[in-house]
Amino acid sequence: MFSHRLGLLCLATTVLLATPARLASGLHHRRHVTHETSLFSRLTADILPRDDCEPADPQDTVTDRLNTLLNSSGAGYTLPLCPGESYYITAPLQFAAHDQEISTVGYPEGDDRATLVVSGVITNGTGQTTAVMGQCVDCDGIKLRHIQINGTRGNNGPISGDANIEMGGDNSGQLIEFVHSFDPRGWSCLHIAEGTFKCNNQTIQNNDIGPCGTDAFQQWADGISISCMNTVVRNNSVNNPTDGGIVVFGAPGTLVENNTIWVVNNTLLGGINMVDYDPWSGNYTNTIVRNNVIMGGFATSDEEPGEKDGTNAEDVIVKIGIAIGPRTWFGDQYYNNVSSSGTVLNNNFTGAFGYAMAISSARNFTVQGNILVGNTSFIGRRGPNCTSDDTTPNATAFVIDPALVTDSNEQSGFITVSDGDSLTCILPPDGGDYWPFGGNPSNSSSASSGQSTSSSSTSSGLSGGAKAGIAIGVILGVAAIAAATYFVRRWALERARAQGADPWRRSGYLGKGMQ
């Protein structure tokens, strides 16, 4: 009989103890509980300093501390940065020996990566522009991985200096991956320099680059700038660059593939540029640009039934998706010099452009399989920087100046123009329903980000109703446990008395043990 009542009490206790979970689950917000095995492990991780990474604090010594470690630790050393920490550096971190690495412990992605924040003083338009420098005489095989670089330009204009990240030089085998570089004070988010033309075999992959610069006149900045031969640039996302998304300065033997370049609120001059005569004298031999996606502006207005185009709040476009030849960019600045011997294959264009592709002053190029996908529009008008003696062609998908393109193999569909000079002088329309409906990665990532933010906020705390429900459940649970304890104790005492034992006499039990 009593055991039956005891079972009912236990069942009631279980139900009552489950009440908080049920109350919480029925409410809008739920707190995600991780499977931690140690009591207060989260609190301990937040309070105690890590011993597996170099701390950001004290900030007034962080630049010297990190550079001392790189300078004194020799080849193969990994400088471990702490996840989620910001390092306010007042001078570049300098790689000092081959096979060194700078990375965040655990190789996280997203905002869990450590951030190097460019913080040097700016005086009279000059100051620190670079966070990481990897061009030492013994910098073969160095690695920059899983960190963020904040160039801190903000609303200021560019200052004289180098890129957020400067690698290359007379070195080979360097790797940059899973790095987010953005808002450079200088001219590029990431630059791989040619050195004395010995730079070779670098890999730039899986990075998220940008925003870089603004579209105000001469306030631009590149996303990725490549001047090192035989470099692989692949699987990178370049968001909102303003000068060139990926600029290839000749760099013979370089492969640029499977990258995505898009604009959000700034017009981009060129998606992928093969226009620079210097420093390789226009030599693009065995340089291949293939399977990239370049996304122009899209309508930001609400789509109405039956409408194909809408307005864009910032009037943004990509002026030239892929530009080939110096005249497309610089006009006659380089006279009769040309870009030569490159290959451009199977790239996709979507969104609003001035021109998807433009070719002028080029020789021995192969251009095949490049197509428009999704919704596209080609819009633009002569701007104030278009010279009066240039006949700027109407905006259209593919344009070529055949008088200045020789020995080349171009796909069908190019429109012949008589003047392909300085095409970046065009401007987007000033408003109007000209932008196609569609979207770029920022739209989907914004949605994801919004979901993530919502999830993050719910995991940081429960609603008032959920907290009240849990409190009530805990009180009821404690009461049930107290009741169960009372009845169990009463049953034990009655049983002891029935057996003739004195339940209060502990010495009797102890005495038996001493006989």
TrEMBL record:
Right handed beta helix domain residues: 200-371
Keywords: Membrane, Signal, Transmembrane, Transmembrane helix
SUPFAM superfamilies registered for this protein in UniProt: Pectin lyase-like
Segment forming the signal sequence: 1-26
Region (Disordered): 437-462
Source organism of the structure: Daedalea quercina L-15889
Pfam families in alphabetical order: Beta_helix
Transmembrane segments: 468-488
Xref: PANTHER family: GLYCOPROTEIN 38, SH3 DOMAIN PROTEIN (AFU_ORTHOLOGUE AFUA_1G13610)
Low complexity compositional bias, start-end: 438-461
Full protein name: Right handed beta helix domain-containing protein
